[in-house]
């Protein structure tokens, strides 16, 4: 009777904990879906064709597309031909943002892609594998009457990938090619109110620069930036979750340090996972509102990479430490075959990110995908990382299979064990199955919401209520992994309570004739973990 009461209390306590976590999970999704706007906004820009007839095209003067000091404009290239204006004297100018608007640090980043309007002409056809050379400059100012200050200037080459859906005959002249978007620019901060882009297409017949690129009619840009409202909600979540994870980390490590034994490997890995989660949570982005920190995108990638590497390592070590008779437990060196691919894959992705966003810190127009060498290098890093990921999942699936096979063998021999040893193994089995269920649920939710966010229009409308699916995906998944780490530290924190004499050294000793070895994740001296207490099926007198 007492055992049944304890079992019911344990089950009820576990349900309460799970219910509380579920409530917070739902809140995380609703915050993004109902409160936050869409994560990003795309703004189309049409460049203005300006005339620059200054000698040597001195770069100190910036050409404005509109405003009190706007440039001399061209309607089209036919006008340029009639006025005998050369291609080298034409500048495509784009002002960011549109008239009567301002940029804000809350936008966090700016990403631009380019689309060229290229018309077919018999005497100026687009060559196969053509490349366009861009002389691009970027400037900023914070007042409409200030002078423009240069941020970057570069000569960039982009490959043109265009198709023409009609026969190339005289009748088809004037029709436009269907060209792919080109990567143009990425900046990791929006610290100023106004930006100006000047684009030149230098022509040099002798060197073959911008020859055979067809008749370019217009240059269009699409600017993508983070919504300020979403940024505020995102910062608020980070600010709330940082102390939550810090508190549970301090509590968790304090419980471990009170042990009479040294921390075991699984406890150390869970604590390291909490540190990596805290590293992501710390809202250093608040400083980007007042400082021009262009490296924040790269820093965010590094933080996420560290967390994912720790999460993958934890799953491997978690499975390995639950192979209850394995002699190689509690040593990180015993997992080098499984953790090695994680390290190699993470290193490859880090080098790839440094080659892309690292270079963009100096040249925001740079893209590793614009050259053959850069493309091959990037693909090599991604392929190696993909191979390492596949090897990792093969190792993980094999270890999960071994653990479940081991569990099946232990369950058949549980009735013959002493009470303490049986409770110990029942706790191990329960913990493993419980955490595997949570892990699968988290992984499934991540994949499902990612797919939903990609195939939907970005929001659902139910009557007067609009749900932002993409925002809900970001806030919900972010909150979910925080709750996952929180639950790990709560459920695997050692207990210091005494559960009776049946856990004495004599009862746990090998004098019973059992040759099974206890796992290092729990010791009889220091007591079971929280989840072990919740799973106890034996009343203590």
Automatic annotation (TrEMBL):
Keywords: Developmental protein, Golgi apparatus, Membrane, Transmembrane, Transmembrane helix, Wnt signaling pathway. Residues 227-496 form the Wntless-like transmembrane domain. GO terms for biological process: intracellular protein transport; Wnt protein secretion; Wnt signaling pathway. The chain crosses the membrane at residues 233-253, 265-284, 296-318, 339-359, 379-407, 428-452, 472-493. It is a multi-pass membrane protein. Its main location: Golgi. Residues 48-226 form the Wntless GOLD domain. GO terms for cellular component: Golgi membrane. One of its GO terms (molecular function) is Wnt-protein binding. The keyword Hydrolase does not apply. It is found in: Golgi apparatus membrane. The keyword Transmembrane helix applies. Belongs to the wntless family. This is WLS protein. The lineage of its organism: Eukaryota, Metazoa, Chordata, Craniata, Vertebrata.
